[in-house]
Amino acid sequence: MNQLQERIFKIYQEVSKLCQKHDIPYFAIGGTCLGAVRHQGFIPWDDDLDIAIPIEHYEEFLTLARKELPSYLEVYDGFDRPHHLCLFSKIIDQRTTYIHETQKDYPDSYMGIFIDVMPISGVPSDRKKRERFYKKLRWYAILNNHSRFPIRSRSKGSRQLLCAFSHGMNIFLPKQYYLKQYFQLLKKYPFFSSQWTSFVWLDSSLDRFTMPSKWFQKQVMLPFEKDRIPCPKDYDAVLKKQYQDYWILPPVQDRVAPHKSLMDLHRSYQEYAKHPEWVNLYFSQKLSDPNEPLKDSQ
């Protein structure tokens, strides 16, 4: 593990202890599951760590996380942060900084390094009902996005009208309204009592990621760095569905973390929030060392 991966892994270990203490089921998904199977740890050129928690346990987890995780760890989600775009929550290390390029103009969205905690629900078994379910989720996701951010100059036609409508509704509705509606819809289909599930938080074709829930409902512990991590028992079927032939490594030139971000393992994001000019300087100069803009600014 590199230094960043090690710090992220420590966040996971605290979350894992909390889930085990309270019998909250969870499992690795996406690149984390792929990393466990193919690399017995992180994908070497990536630093994401993603877990999923069934929707019927998700709120319980967040409540307990706010109360019982070490004080330096924080639940970060759209219910507390007006400019948080993601539909799911993160557990962040407040002692560090992670700022994606798209966050630079919104200091309230700055955060620490993190792990992602996704809510996984069931989806309707009937195909037509499932399509309507996916459409509703997409609408709530789009409205959640547009209600939180200003109308972009590049937005045109119906998209600009939708932005204007969403912002107009902010007079009557709190920014969290569409996010709450999104979660209320997920709760209609509990994970453990549904035949089908999907990675509903992904922007790509949801139908492509529709899978039998039974693939996930039992877990197997796989080696992951210095520890073990629960993965879906049918991880082979899951990974083939998501990545096709997942044993084939990408070309060398593609083995890079796909993030344009400022990361600082030694300074809290709260310091950067007090000085957003440091952040703008970092991205305008495309500096590789996050301490450089600080030296110029102090």
From TrEMBL:
Transmembrane segments: none annotated. Pfam families: LicD. It comes from the Bacteria. Residues 19-243 form the LicD/FKTN/FKRP nucleotidyltransferase domain. InterPro entries: LicD/FKTN/FKRP_NTP_transf, LPS_cholinephosphotransferase. One of its GO terms (biological process) is glycoprotein metabolic process. This is LicD family protein.
